[in-house]
Input
Amino acid sequence: MRIGRATRNARFALTPPPSCLTDPAPMPPPAASPVPAPEPVILPERAGDRARVDALVSAAFGPGRYAKTAERLREGARPRADLSLVALAGRELVGAVRVWPVLIGADPALFLGPIAVDPAFRKHGLGSMLVQEVCARAASAGEAAILLVGDRPFFGPLGFQPVPPGRIVMPGPVDPARVLWKGLNGREIALAGPVSIAPVSR
Ligand SMILES: CC(C)(COP(=O)(O)OP(=O)(O)OC[C@H]1O[C@@H](n2cnc3c(N)ncnc32)[C@H](O)[C@@H]1OP(=O)(O)O)[C@@H](O)C(=O)NCCC(=O)NCCS
Output
């Protein structure tokens, strides 16, 4: 039997648990697991994970991903090491999400993507958990907002909303219905302007 999205999210281990995700109420014991064992744990991506993350993403999206406008915000840039995460089931890398520093106008923001979960581990809440963990860590880091290009049916329940028409300018063609963002720490998003790769801070 499948379990609800919110409930499923509690079934993956976080290392370390961010304070904003901790629930003071005692957790009920997990239901019988349909997830292939061992259950994934979520950790920051390390340099040694890079090839396996690339392989997972390539398998999920194919080579056409490099032609996407989102790639214009990643090429030549470095993902945020503190916010890009992997999910490990034992020694197997079964999920990944990357986060990139961008500017919206002159102000810093984050750009999320790609996110991918191994097909054998999908629909058990792992993709949602990766996004929620990124949001929690980004909020703790004092970031203002996370922008992405993705499917609203997946990201909407995770708090992402369409960017109002005309507010930002992406660096290429994109379906405006797929340009979503989320303000962090309960803040209204005041950002506007062209989206560009953030210069590397030294
Ligand atoms: C998107 C992805 C990361 C989700 O991972 P996951 O572990 O299956 O995610 P969850 O289990 O937390 O959530 C699954 C829910 O999101 C829905 N969902 C997943 N991908 C979706 C998509 N692209 N569009 C709409 N809904 C989607 C599922 O139908 C499911 O809905 P349900 O809870 O009503 O059954 C995974 O499907 C994947 O790797 N897809 C290929 C890569 C990709 O398309 N990434 C970008 C998506 S915009």
